[in-house]
């Protein structure tokens, strides 16, 4: 057999092995959170868009929720605006929320839409404001001082928590050719615009839709232990312990908290995985090699 024929045979075998997985997810909703740290590399971006296009072609209902923390950071620096994080969330004043909306619902959102469209599918870029999809309220967060153990209320400005999700638009799109790509910006009933952590936003969408899978693509292989080794499976109570003892910190806190909430709301499978590995979405959904950290009840 020539090398070309052998390769073709291998490809066919791989495709055929994917069939039971494709059948498992047919007509199921899969929410993929595409983190700002996982973006940036053109080839990886294309591979991600191709995975999403392939999911739609396979009869899955993929919904992309994206972040863009590092990209917001760069724009704020260019504008001479200082940025501060508390408990993994960006303290957001009026000027900052304007930049956040510009970067998330503007440039990044359209970049992802264009990548998916370039793969021959129809992506549509949205944020919580479109079709009254999501309403937010001012986030109420407290933080414990590690030395004194005293709880302190955080004022994060225009950081929001999603409190209402209307599925009308997303249900309509699920029955169409369109793939929704959603930026985590939403209005409040008070008339303000809120900046919502993309992980929290993805969790709210997955919960409201009763998604089968919620995947978080980030820049690390999953949740790492104290020795920086990948934890394959994490129970809700183990995850809470790792947050309390500081093993899980920064941007991993809202991610893991969202995983816990999503599981408690009935999302079947929640996984944190490396978005810097090409085709990580396909690897996770359509092969026997699950990637990353699976959070279990
Ligand atoms: N225990 C941990 N395991 C893995 N990553 C962790 C952990 N604790 C903190 N992190 C940090 O969380 C980051 C991922 O969160 P974040 O920066 O918000 O990414 P994203 O933009 O993908 O949402 C990692 O790059 C890492 O620096
Ligand atoms: C409140 C809050 O922190 N909002 C985030 C929204 C973007 C985001 O979450 O992006 P990643 O997924 O890339 O981290 C921010 O301003 O950075």
TrEMBL record:
<dbReference type="InterPro" id="IPR004662">
    <property type="entry name" value="AcgluKinase_fam"/>
</dbReference>
<feature type="site" description="Transition state stabilizer">
    <location>
        <position position="33"/>
    </location>
</feature>
<feature type="binding site">
    <location>
        <position position="90"/>
    </location>
    <ligand>
        <name>substrate</name>
    </ligand>
</feature>
<feature type="site" description="Transition state stabilizer">
    <location>
        <position position="255"/>
    </location>
</feature>
<keyword id="KW-0055">Arginine biosynthesis</keyword>
<keyword id="KW-0963">Cytoplasm</keyword>
<feature type="domain" description="Aspartate/glutamate/uridylate kinase">
    <location>
        <begin position="28"/>
        <end position="274"/>
    </location>
</feature>
<protein>
    <recommendedName>
        <fullName>Acetylglutamate kinase</fullName>
        <ecNumber>2.7.2.8</ecNumber>
    </recommendedName>
</protein>
<feature type="binding site">
    <location>
        <position position="195"/>
    </location>
    <ligand>
        <name>substrate</name>
    </ligand>
</feature>
<keyword id="KW-0028">Amino-acid biosynthesis</keyword>
<comment type="pathway">
    <text>Amino-acid biosynthesis; L-arginine biosynthesis; N(2)-acetyl-L-ornithine from L-glutamate: step 2/4.</text>
</comment>
<dbReference type="GO" id="GO:0003991">
    <property type="term" value="F:acetylglutamate kinase activity"/>
</dbReference>
<comment type="function">
    <text>Catalyzes the ATP-dependent phosphorylation of N-acetyl-L-glutamate.</text>
</comment>
<keyword id="KW-0808">Transferase</keyword>
<dbReference type="InterPro" id="IPR041727">
    <property type="entry name" value="NAGK-C"/>
</dbReference>
<dbReference type="InterPro" id="IPR036393">
    <property type="entry name" value="AceGlu_kinase-like_sf"/>
</dbReference>
<keyword id="KW-0067">ATP-binding</keyword>
<keyword id="KW-0418">Kinase</keyword>
<feature type="binding site">
    <location>
        <begin position="68"/>
        <end position="69"/>
    </location>
    <ligand>
        <name>substrate</name>
    </ligand>
</feature>
<dbReference type="InterPro" id="IPR001048">
    <property type="entry name" value="Asp/Glu/Uridylate_kinase"/>
</dbReference>
<dbReference type="Pfam" id="PF00696">
    <property type="entry name" value="AA_kinase"/>
</dbReference>
<keyword id="KW-0547">Nucleotide-binding</keyword>
<dbReference type="InterPro" id="IPR037528">
    <property type="entry name" value="ArgB"/>
</dbReference>
<comment type="similarity">
    <text>Belongs to the acetylglutamate kinase family. ArgB subfamily.</text>
</comment>
<dbReference type="InterPro" id="IPR001057">
    <property type="entry name" value="Glu/AcGlu_kinase"/>
</dbReference>
């Amino acid at each position: 057999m020539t090398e070309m024929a052998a390769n073709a045979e291998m490809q066919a075998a791989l495709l055929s092995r994917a069939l039971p997985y494709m059948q498992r997810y047919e007509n199921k909703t899969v929410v993929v959170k595409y983190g700002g740290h996982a973006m940036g590399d053109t080839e990886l971006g294309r591979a991600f868009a191709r995975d999403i296009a392939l999911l739609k072609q396979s009869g899955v209902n993929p919904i992309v929720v994206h972040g863009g923390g590092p990209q917001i950071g760069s724009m704020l620096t260019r504008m001479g605006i200082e940025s501060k994080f508390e408990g993994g969330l960006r303290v957001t004043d009026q000027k900052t929320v304007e930049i956040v909306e510009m970067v998330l619902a503007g440039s990044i959102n359209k970049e992802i839409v264009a990548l998916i469209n370039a793969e021959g599918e129809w992506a549509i870029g949205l944020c919580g404001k479109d079709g009254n999809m999501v309403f937010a309220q001012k986030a109420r967060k407290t933080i414990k001082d590690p030395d004194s153990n005293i709880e302190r209320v955080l004022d994060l400005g225009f950081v929001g928590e999603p409190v209402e999700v209307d599925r009308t638009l997303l249900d309509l799109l699920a029955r169409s050719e369109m793939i929704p790509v959603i930026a985590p910006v939403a209005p409040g009933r008070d008339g303000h615009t809120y900046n919502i952590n993309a992980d929290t936003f993805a969790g709210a969408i997955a919960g409201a839709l009763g998604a089968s899978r919620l995947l978080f693509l980030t820049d690390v292989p999953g949740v790492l232990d104290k020795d920086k080794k990948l934890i394959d499976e994490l129970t809700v109570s183990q995850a809470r312990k790792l947050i309390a003892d500081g093993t899980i910190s920064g941007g991993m806190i809202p991610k893991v908290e969202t995983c816990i909430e999503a599981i408690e709301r009935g999302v079947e499978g929640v996984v944190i995985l490396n978005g810097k590995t090409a085709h990580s979405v396909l690897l996770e959904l359509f092969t026997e090699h699950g990637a990353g950290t699976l959070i279990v009840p």
